[in-house]
Task: structure prediction
Amino acid sequence: MNFNFTEEQTQFKDVIKSLLADECTPSSIRDGWSAKKSFNQSRWNKISELGVLSSNLSEEYGGLGMDQVALALMVEEMGYAGLPEPVAEQTFLVNDLMPLFPEGLKDEIKSIHESGNQYIALAHPLSPNPLFLGHAAALLLFDESTYQFILKDDLNFKPLASNDPSRELSAIDSIKKSISSSENFETLNSAVTARGSLMTAALLIGLAQKMLDLSSAYVLDRNQFGKPIGSFQAIKHMLADIAVEIEFAKPTVYRAAHSLLDKNPKSNLHCSHAKYMSARAAELACKNSIQAHGAMGYTWEMDLHIYMRKAWSLMACWGNEDKQQDIIYKTLTTSKDELGVLYTF
Result:
């Protein structure tokens, strides 16, 4: 069995990596913070021109039919760049659910896609405050038993403060009119929960790697006692610990993506495992990177805090570590699978 990524999957990853290296720099993110306008329309348009926003839609809906593994690789690069725009949310949460929606709702979403590079926001009890609602054409709103499709003009909402200024959050005040349904709710709710966990896991892996790279560069440049502080064993160990956590988490993300692609009955468990492991890696990356920067990483002058703030925010979205641990524990203790050193879930 070949576990390597396909040429097409790596090409998609490399294309988005190259674009974001040019278009999503720390200075451009800072400019968005200063202007209180983190959604960069020019950057969004360029991403759209590459076909990324519809990349994982089927050809029937004007997409490229990209699979979840390729999507996870791309989203990892979005995390690494600290991309503010909700490209991951559009692709992982809305596009990937299209086959599960009732026909009438599919038509509504399809018409928005066909009208151009429009964004559809999504809110769910595990992530209740939608991103960039002011830039969205519509909102998909999940509650405990139904889901609603609401055009932005039929919404009243207000902005919320965020730990990460790149994440423009909103609270919904009232809804004038919506398309509401409970059809196929359990399947849809399960699917969006799994995809939310996997999406944030992929973003966190990218963010953790970015923080590690920034810290590695800093400790090689910073001198103390006549030599780079990166030559000191304590610093080496801190950064090596981050690298180990990242390498342990990455396979869980790719396994979860393949599990969704393969329609594995354990895909929700795998997505929870991916989110748990990635959150652990990102948490350690935040902690050790601050130390490696001499506690200056949190200050405005250092780029590190751009990615650290986003990581902290994403750790709490779509189920924090405790939530994911609980899902994993309940699934394993109620399943009839054999467990132990000779087995895996």
Notes: Strands lie at 120-123, 138-142, 147-151, 155-160, 169-175, 179-181, 223-224, 227-228. The first helix runs from residue 7 to 23.
